[in-house]
Amino acid sequence: MSSKTRQRRGKKQTAPPEATAIRNNASSSEPRQSTDEKTLSQIFWGHPLIVVLPYVMIPYLLYHAYHYVLLQRPELLSPFATLRPALAITEPRQVLIVGTMSSGTTQVAHELSTHFGLEVQHEVSDSTSYFCRDGTVSWFHGIRFLSPPASIERMAPLCVNFTQNMGFHPRMYAAQSCSSWQTWSACWMKSCFEVLQREWGCTQRPNHHCETPFRVTLWQVRHPLRTMESLTAKFCNGKSVHPSLVTFVEALFPSKQKPNTCLEWVAYYVLEYSQAMLLAHQRGDIVHWYRVEETSPCQVAALAGFLNDSSTVPQVAQKCRDNELLQQPMISTQYKINQNVTLTMSDFSNEYARRIKKLIQALGYTEDFK
User: How many Å apart are CA 324 and CA 322, to the nearest integer?
Assistant: First the structure.
């Protein structure tokens, strides 16, 4: 074997420069690609919205699933538990209690639901979305006792724009197809007109038909001056009046002569609402009325007919027997906003003072009743 051949065999074989470059690029690109993918994954899963999303969506889905099953499809759990049947919007429930804003409606709803375990809600009557299958306590549901509006234009101020903190939204009356993520939209505005057309003055239509019927309707009253004091604390900032109150009062109780001051707006609202409920009571649309300051939770339950309903008699009657506090007049613990407003008849003009005095007498109060 020649020396040249031995040299070739002993010489280390090397790849061409091009092949070496390709191999080096391939080997170096693999870990770099893995690093890029890991970085993108970390960026995605570490984003604050992604981190928070499960904590928001899981409770949200569980909340809606809970309400859907119990209120709309309780039969799904029939193999495991005996649940209360679903109640459609058009099916009757036991009681509707109406009263002006600041007349203690929140307190009464709290008393009936908390102490007696009744499904009574404040301001809402949609029994497919809320636990209100026993009844509703509300000021705005009183529109069913008002005279029907002459035209749809009268509803526009309540529907074109959403007015917050006034106890009215279309979702309170029936399930809607509008997005629950939006407080107000064109869809909600359309639903608003539809709800008002069904509800406003429905007891005065020829067929006396309201979409949601109640077996018993009560009117809860509070001393007019005490009610006006609370409303003044809520809606009056000095002499100016909150526009929300003006919007609703003008729509529900239009008048050619508008009130001049915030105190007059408050008085006008209480007087007009109370007069409408008095007329409804005279027509028989409201069965009973009671003074909230002198009435116990058990008396309200009795007036509402819960002691005559076989499904709730043991539940309510037993608690009234066992708890003496439920037989005492209610003490306000919910939504107390008035701390320092005190009104007397001298704070009003002669015309308003005359009307307030007449209402006080009609409701069986004295002027200095506290």
Answer: 6
CA of residue 149 relative to chain centroid, distance: 24
Q: What is the pLDDT of residue 29?
A: 47
Burial of 102 (C-beta count, 10 Å sphere; 0-12/13-18/19+)? buried
- My answer on whether 271 and 291 are in the same domain is yes
| Domain that residue 78 falls in | 31-83
| Residues 55 and 109 reside in one and the same domain | no
**Each residue's pLDDT tens digit, 45-73:** 777 777 777 777 788 677 778 777 888 88
Q: How far is CA 217 from CA 40, 178, 272, 278, 345, in A?
A: 62, 30, 19, 13, 31
Residue 352's nearest CA partner among 239, 237, 241, 228 is 228
Q: Is residue 232 part of a domain?
A: yes
Q: Give per-residue pLDDT as tens, 340-370.
A: 899 999 999 999 999 999 999 999 999 888 6
- Quick check: 232 pLDDT over 90? yes
Check if the beta carbon of residue 162 is closer than 8 Å to that of residue 188: yes
Give residue 274's identity as a one-letter amino acid code: S
Q: What is the mean predicted confidence (pLDDT) over 141-170? A: 94
CA gyration radius, the chain? 33
Q: What is the chain's length? A: 370
Residue 217 near residue 284 (C-beta atoms within 8 A): no
